[in-house]
Design a protein that fits this description.
Number of domains: 1
Number of strands: 8
Largest sheet: 8 strands, parallel, barrel
Order of helices and strands: EHEHEHEHEHEHHEHEH
Strand order of the largest sheet: 1-2-3-4-5-6-7-8
Helix content: 40-55%
CATH topology: TIM Barrel
Oligomer: single chain
Distance between the termini: 8 Å
Shape: globular
Strand content: 5-15%
CATH architecture: Alpha-Beta Barrel
CATH superfamily: Divalent-metal-dependent TIM barrel enzymes
Mean pLDDT: 98
Number of helices: 9
């Protein structure tokens, strides 16, 4: 278990894909979560990708000895545009051999019915692509695993699950991820390993091991539940993004070393 350790290229927000891949590979990781989010971290644009774009991307990945484990394609699923972009991401995931496409949901509670309707046909597309669609613990509407579990119990779609973000559970939901994860574990198909410092709504997501998330407990919960899922490190720092790329490289290296240590201590490595 725990063989699917990746880093989200969103960790390299503001830097190029090449810089992200180089830093991730040098730290010791072999997988990436490719950030494909318009108007945020857009390292690959899914809705404009042709065969040549995919070929060049595969070439870059091979150069650094990396594979794409998942895609981050956060979209507003209350809109047709958001859903259309997500379909393009699912198709890119299929071509790249990725297992999961992560997304946001909706920004308003009154859009939940529309979300459920859209998820029905998005799930069918995910099935055709042999990919899981993972709704992230993110934002005000679905700020915890418990809330996403309630949604998924209603829709009952086998290709739709949860991307559990440990830092977002604290930031948006004000809940301990070690407790909240247990509530939704059967629905979790992907996880963001994200640490957190400070109180509720304080944007401070440091290298793993520097915050308040008890990752030893998180891994024990996953182990006991036999959840062999993609695990993607995401570091978003203090939100100012004024640091050089070398600063991110060090944070990723430290996170790899921390993960290796606690996995060895738990007997998982």
């Amino acid at each position: 278990m725990f063989q699917w350790l990746a880093v989200s290229t969103n960790t390299y927000h503001g830097f190029s894909l090449e810089e992200a891949l180089e830093g991730i590979a040098q730290a010791g990781f072999r997988y990436v979560e490719l950030s494909c989010v318009p108007d945020w971290t857009l390292h690959f644009r899914c809705d404009q990708a042709g065969e040549e774009d995919l070929r060049k991307l595969r070439q870059k990945l091979a150069h650094f000895g990396l594979s794409v484990l998942s895609l981050s394609a956060h979209s507003n699923l209350a809109t047709e545009e958001g859903c259309a972009y997500l379909v393009s991401a699912l198709r890119c995931a299929r071509e790249l051999g990725a297992r999961v496409v992560n997304t946001g949901t909706v920004d308003r509670e009154e859009d939940e019915d529309l979300l459920r309707k859209h998820l029905e046909w998005l799930s069918r597309e995910a099935e055709r692509c042999d990919v899981f669609l993972a709704l992230e613990v993110h934002g005000d509407v679905f700020s915890s695993g418990r809330k996403l579990r309630e949604l998924l119990e209603k829709v009952q779609l086998p290709r739709v699950g949860i991307n559990y973000d440990t830092g977002n559970a604290l930031f948006y939901g004000n809940v301990r991820p070690e407790d909240d994860l247990r509530v939704c574990l059967p629905w979790v198909v992907h996880m963001h390993l994200k640490d957190k410092r400070g109180g509720y709504r304080v944007w401070d997501f440091p290298p793993l091991g520097d915050g308040m998330v008890d990752f030893s407990t998180i891994f024990r919960i996953l182990w006991e539940g036999q959840k062999d899922i993609p695990l993607s490190v995401e570091i978003e720092f203090d939100g100012r993004f004024e640091h050089p790329c070398s600063f991110v490289d060090v944070a990723v290296q430290r996170s790899f070393q921390y993960l290796r240590r606690i996995l060895e201590e738990g007997g998982y490595w």
